[in-house]
Amino acid sequence: MVVDGAVFASASFKDHEQVVFCNDAETGLKAIIGIHDTTLGPALGGTRMWNYENELEAIRDVLRLSRGMTFKASISGLNLGGGKAVIIGDSRKDKTDALMQKFGEYVNSLSGRYITAEDVGINTHDMEMVKMKTDHVTGVPISMGGSGDPSPVTAYGVFMGMKAAVQYKFGTDDLNGRKVMVQGIGHVGETLVKHLTEAGADVIINDIHMDRMEEVAAKYQAKIFAGDVFEADFDIYAPCALGATVNPQTIDRLKASIIAGAANNQLADEWRDGTTLKTKGILYAPDFLINAGGLINVNSEIAHYDREESLRRTENIYDTTLEIFRKAELDDITTHQAALTIAKDRISAIKAARN
Ligand code: NAD
Q1: Which of 101, 131, 209, 283 lies at a C-alpha separation of 20 to 30 Å from 124?
Q2: What range does the domain containing 227 cover?
Q3: Any ligand 1 atom below 6 A from CB of 215
Q4: Residues with active-site annotation
Q5: Hey, whose CA ends up nearest to atom 32 of ligand 1?
Q6: Chain center to CA of 131
Q7: Percentages helix, strand, coil for the chain, rounded to the nearest 5?
Q8: Same domain, yes or no, for 61 and 98?
Q9: Given the CA of residue 155, which atom of ligand 1 is nearest to it?
Q10: Is 151 in the pocket of ligand 1 (CB under 6 A)?
């Protein structure tokens, strides 16, 4: 990607306003903060800690994730811009309080242009550490006056989006007896499993950690599938781990007729893969639309946290998802394009009004 100095022209570097590299030898912190677009407000997005194969993979991830946040905030009607951060390392082994505090110092140096929160590998305790160095942080523990872990609200929104997809596809939003594969049963995945079990769905779970699968399976009577998920049979695919799991290799083998999950950037290539899904009649609930519950929740923490209001706004994801499906059908475009158009139009309208 970053070949011959071609950063600004690269495919991932799509209109980003600022990218910050954070390097601290003492704590071992290696982080990248991506600020994509602040037209609607300060860039808010979680921090991901992941053991990337190489640094370019981390750069690509932060660029894709921060861009997605711009459209997530916009389509959710929030006055927030798009940003995200990644910390390079294994969260189970390399994460320390000192490292998170140092990261907080870097966030603080941006004077509020970027506000952080939780993502993969990061929890409320980590946000407590960040809070020691900056006020530009959300998802802080409830005991400290914050909104706590955003993932239950994210899971609720995903559940709403999935129900809307089932309604659109089958004419009823009843999940009773539907076979759902939840891939990645971390913070969001586990709560999604809970909602699905309560709704009577036949839930199959998959994760890279067997201990997690056994724990969640025992709690909710879900079935464990330890192999390649695309070899399994199910009606609904809920990607709740990392992105890019929907690509030419997997679409070909996917037997489900609906994709609705929490993971960011599920489509490896949004235009190519979105079009293939449309052609094959697989209904895709756009990720940045249905996983916005957590963002809605942490946004509420900035002014005055109101959980009921956050849940009510998150419930609206059901209606918005249906609207997007109708628009996509009417305009003969992919569901991803339909959602993106609405998100981009709002940003353009605000820009035009300002000018
Ligand atoms: P998490 O770290 O709590 O959980 C991720 C889970 O995925 C872990 O259990 C991990 O072992 C598993 N996993 C990783 N790679 C896998 C693979 N290849 N196959 C199967 N399982 C795998 O993260 P989370 O907060 O639950 O977030 C999950 C996804 O949802 C991420 O893509 C995140 O960006 C997205 N998301 C999260 C939130 C939120 O509120 N936490 C909000 C919006 C979007």
Answers
A1: 209
A2: 152-292+319-343
A3: no
A4: 84
A5: 263
A6: 22
A7: 45, 15, 35
A8: yes
A9: 40
A10: yes
**pTM, to two decimals:** 0.95
pLDDT digits (tens, 9 = 90+) for 206-234: 999 999 999 999 999 999 999 999 999 99
Is residue 69 within 8 A of residue 44, CB to CB? The reply is: yes
Residues pairing with 43 in the sheet:
81, 114
Q: Which atom of ligand 1 lies closest to the CA of 91?
A: 2
Distance 55 CA to ligand 1 centre (A): 20
Residue 98 lies in a domain: yes
Q: Which amino acid is located at 348 in the chain? A: S
Residue the block writes with tokens 């969001």: 188
| β-bridge mates for residue 204, sequence order | 181, 223
Tell me how many domains the chain contains: 2
Q: Are both 285 and 194 inside the same structural domain?
A: yes
Q: Answer whether 45 contacts ligand 1 (Cβ < 6 A).
A: no
Strand, coil or helix: 30: strand
pLDDT tens track for 57-102: 999 999 999 999 999 999 999 999 999 999 999 999 999 999 999 9
